[in-house]
Specification:
Layout (H helix, E strand, L loop, with lengths): L2 H11 L18 E5 L2 E4 L4 E4 L14 H12 L9 H13 L5 E5 L2 H16 L3 E5 L31 H4 L2 E4 L4 H10 L3 E6 L15 H11 L3 E5 L11 H5 L6 E5 L9 E5 L1 H4 L18 H16 L3 H18 L4 E5 L2 E5 L8 H5 L3 H13 L2 E2 L8 E2 L6 H16 L1
Bound molecules: pyridoxal-5'-phosphate.
């Protein structure tokens, strides 16, 4: 069946025809038959260079031989035991070694679950109720973080989804990104804040990058007000380098959340941080957290193989950075909008100056983006279908792929 027919059928069976909203591309999404390296092949027989990469996990590209081998070897031995496995110790040990702020970790099954648990833990540890997040920051799809952007620091949070209780998000306040004073002012006025959660680099509207000193300011301000600092590194972990943004910018959060790359493409999440905080988690402490699929062996094997590969090939980060720089050079030639990149994260914004925060990103010309996105797809390049989702590169993108992407950027931006 063709993609268009499959989508007609899917719409009868699943809300919006999809398993996650961003996939509902109009008029219909393409259905993938298989993937390898940097390429997706659709059921319609079309091949795309993939710059979406499942929204981040696949830093080594599709079906990387070492990750595939690790998954196959694990599957032979079983894929779910409901008992501890030696693999947990390998992956936990690696994450802890790579992140000076992390003394202990707990594995869960998704990034959403990780931030949900980290927030509960922060409340349990501090005995305080409120949390502060950044406007436009994305931390998954659970109630406490589904707050409408624009409900700022001085007002109570307003639910961003039907079904989320106003009472729940009343405990969530928001501040703009890159605005340390706004956080300081809010924390000075509100003594009931358990934690400030932030994507150190905003990955779900961008990338939008932290200005010089912003992350260090966050560390100082939260410490001064006795508020836990949570870095949500679900995208940035192992994406902007070993040790994520916290090592790259040299700022130690109290807690950090992970997902995406640490599972090598299989479902995973993790949260970790200072020992005295983490020891509050059940069964060693009173903050409850549990999961049937937590620490499932297949995800651990895929994640561990991915992290080992990255450790053994530290040059990959420099190569990825050079690749996005090559794309930037062509995009800048187009003299239209702004290009932002950080290692293998990149995005072209249809707005004169690079955005500093969520409000800036809202000013982008979305229609121009849609035309550009469609033109790129016609040129054989699959980008995330939103002005507000970052593009990704992987180690599987070849020099020829990068040239094709750069050329397509050039011609599609000029179009
Ligand atoms: C993807 C993402 C999440 C949610 O992770 P899931 O595995 O999709 O639940 C949370 N935080 C950030 C920063 C993310 O990019």
């Amino acid at each position: 069946m063709k993609s268009s027919d499959l989508f007609e059928r899917a719409k009868q069976l699943m809300p919006g025809g999809v398993s996650s909203p961003v996939r509902a591309i109009r008029p219909y999404p393409f259905y993938v038959e298989r993937a390898a390296g940097s390429r997706l092949t659709t059921v319609d027989g079309v091949e795309f260079i993939d710059c979406c990469l499942a929204y981040g996990p696949l830093i080594l590209g599709h079906v990387h031989p070492e990750v595939k081998g690790a998954i196959e070897r694990q599957i032979e031995k079983g894929w779910l035991y409901g008992t501890p496995t030696p693999l947990e110790i390998d992956l936990a040990g690696t994450i802890i070694e790579d992140h000076p702020a992390v003394d202990m970790v707990r594995f869960v099954s998704s990034g959403s679950e990780a931030t949900m648990a980290a927030i509960r833990l922060a409340r349990g540890y501090t005995g305080k109720q409120d949390i502060v997040k950044v406007e436009g920051g994305f931390h998954g799809a659970h109630d406490a973080v589904l707050v409408k952007a624009g409900s700022g620091a001085t007002t109570l949070g307003v639910p961003d989804s039907a079904g989320v209780l106003a009472d729940v998000v009343a405990h969530t306040r928001q501040v703009p990104y890159n605005d340390p004073e706004a956080l300081d002012t809010l924390l000075a006025r509100n003594e009931d804040v358990a934690a400030f959660i932030v994507e150190p680099i905003m990955g779900n509207i961008g990338p939008v990058l932290p200005e010089d000193g912003y992350l260090a300011d966050l560390r100082e301000i939260t410490a001064a007000h006795d508020v836990l600092l949570i870095f949500d590194e679900v995208i940035t972990g192992y994406r902007v380098g070993i040790g994520g943004a916290q090592v790259r910018y040299g700022v130690k959060p109290d807690l950090a959340t992970f997902g995406k790359i640490i599972g090598g493409g299989l479902p995973i999440g993790a949260f970790g941080g200072r020992r005295e905080i983490m020891e509050m988690v059940a069964p060693s402490g009173p903050v409850y957290q549990a999961g049937t699929f937590s620490g499932n062996p297949a995800s651990l094997a895929a994640g561990y193989a991915t992290l080992r590969y990255l450790h053994e090939h530290p040059d990959v980060y420099r190569h990825l950075d050079e690749a996005t720089r090559a794309i930037e050079e062509t995009a800048l030639d187009a003299r239209r909008g702004s290009f932002v990149r950080m290692g293998s994260l990149f995005k072209h914004f249809f707005r004169e100056a690079p955005p500093r925060n969520y409000r800036d990103v809202q000013e982008c010309d979305r229609e121009a983006f849609s035309r550009f996105w469609k033109a790129m797809l016609d040129a054989g390049i699959f980008l995330p279908p939103s002005q507000f989702e970052t593009n990704f590169l992987s180690t599987a993108h070849t020099r020829t792929d990068i040239e094709k992407i750069a050329d397509a950027y050039g011609s599609c931006l000029f179009a």
